[in-house]
Amino acid sequence: MTDLPIVTKLNESYKLWHGYLNDLPRLTRYTLGIKIDNLFTDCLELSLLAGYSSRPEKLSVVQKLSTKIDALKFFLKLLWEIKALENKQYNPLSLPLVEIGKMAGGWLASLKKETPPTSVEGV
User: Fold this and answer.
1) Does this model's pTM top 0.85?
2) What is the per-residue pLDDT for 117?
């Protein structure tokens, strides 16, 4: 299941991020750096889980994935804004994450089309 394009893209982005983590200022490395690292690994885990999930579970997992990707992009931007990450590091990380976000959004939209809304009888 690791052949999912979103998993491959996240994996490549994480490896790039991992190379930058030790270069962050010490205080930032142990606050925002760890937060971002955890979000990356959460996204990897959720994308793998979504690939293996049954259809009824998949929508919920991909919704969580999409939210985590948004949080990841937010905290990376914050790291860049406080000048703990240089432009030459931020751009190669942020551009694939935009694409990853679009992939998750497309996956989510596709799942929402497939999943009929639940109706409540007698209301």
Assistant:
1) yes
2) 61
